[in-house]
Amino acid sequence: MSEFGEKRERIRNLMEYAVPEGSLDEALDLLDIYRDDRIALDLLHEFYAFLPEAKNDLVREIRLACRRQGVFLLAAMTRESGYFYLVSSEGIEFQGTVAEGMYDQDVLDFFGYSGREQFQAESSRPGKFQVYEPMGSDEDLCPACHAATGELHELGCPVELCPWCGGQLVYCSCRFEKLEVESLSSEKDLVRFEEILNEQGRIPYSPEQRPSFADEGPGVIIE
Ligand SMILES: [Zn+2]
Ligand SMILES: [Zn+2]
Question: Rounded to the nearest whole angstrom, what is the distance from the C-alpha of residue 183 to the centroid of ligand 2?
Answer without folding.
Answer: 15
